[in-house]
Amino acid sequence: xxxxxxxxxxxxxxxxxxxxxxxxxxxxxxxxxxxxxxxxxxxxxxxxxxxxxxxxxxxxxxxxxxxxxxxxxxxxxxxxxxxxxxxxxxxxxxxxxxxxxxxxxxxxxxxxxxxxxxxxxxxxxxxxxxxxxxxxxxxxxxxxxxxxxxxxxxxxxxxxxxxxxxxxxxxxxxxxxxxxxxxxxxxxxxxxxxxxxxxxxxxxxxxxxxxxxxxxxxxxxxxxxxxxxxxxxxxxxxxxxxxxxxxxxxxxxxxxxxxxxxxxxxxxxxxxxxxxxxxxxxxxxxxxxxxxxxxxxxxxxxxxxxxxxxxxxxxxxxxxxxxxxxxxxxxxxxxxxxxxxxxxxxxxxxxxxxxxxxxxxxxxxxxxxxxxxxxxxxxxxxxxxxxxxxxxxxxxx
Length: 397
Hints:
Blueprint: H1 2-29, E1 33-36, E2 49-55, E3 68-75, E4 78-87, E5 92-95, E6 99-114, E7 117-119, E8 122-124, E9 134-138, E10 141-142, H2 146-153, E11 163-169, E12 172-178, E13 181-182, E14 189-190, E15 193-208, E16 214-217, E17 233-240, E18 242-247, E19 255-260, E20 267-275, E21 278-283, E22 292-296, E23 305-311, E24 319-328, E25 339-343, H3 346-352, E26 356-357, E27 363-366, E28 369-378, E29 381-389, H4 390-395
Parallel strand pairs: 1-4, 19-26, 22-28
Antiparallel strand pairs: 2-3, 3-4, 5-15, 5-22, 6-9, 6-15, 6-17, 7-8, 9-10, 9-11, 11-12, 13-14, 15-16, 16-21, 17-20, 18-19, 20-21, 23-24, 23-27, 24-25, 25-29, 27-28, 28-29
């Protein structure tokens, strides 16, 4: 009798462990996002571990006519994981690796500093607007450049009046009042703010879609150099770029590609979006000639092991270099630091020291699939870097 009680107790113990530990283990081993191509029914199964697909569009009852949805994973009828599903119509994409120049004009102007106005009553500043804020509108009029502000606040109907400004702070839109004051020397109204309305730099193009010519690059946002504010794109272009020199990375200091491009000349495409996951837009079809057609991958195909990155160290020729992916993470689905890799290619280490600024966006290819892009370098070890999964770039393009 005691043996039966003991056996029953052991059985209950193992059953409880199975119901608690196994679902946690399964959940941690499954990705948060998957890119699929083809029939969703290949991913829906019945049994102890079941999966059910739910399209984002609730009116859509045809499972294969969708672009996004979620796969509900259940264990013995209990939901343990929801996987975001992103469907692509084609399983191929063009991996690029070309270094390009990028120039953006922002929606609104970024406040980069305060400059008190000397008035008849002394120095005056506008305290309602902070460094890093993006001024979008004044009295309902769009702000596209710094000159727009000067024109509006000196307009006859607004001179010397308290005005309403629409601005963004940390991504949140708000309204406040501003009080332009008369500058004693110039006799014009000013806000006492330093602002910037554009940004430029160099980076690497990650991919191009062959049918639509849509591209993704960088894998991280273009931010204002002084404030770190992510710039909303009003207009933007990418240009042919020449790399003049490369400063090698070293412990505590990131290396850098030093390049040059001439705005208005050698335009390769237009930038439409600037996001946490990279910049996106459309390009000239001729760029496909220098790209490599590969299968689409992502977090559901990436794994620790050997891989390659594509980049152009001279701005012209795209080369392959060896890396080892040493860590992949399915968690943090909004991270542009989702995977960790180490440069093993002696040629690249000799020429650059490892990963340098300007290589952001370099495609990462593993087992014939484009799985992501280079985004950041370890400051304490230039041979190590972070990457973003391709599916995050595609979802947010």
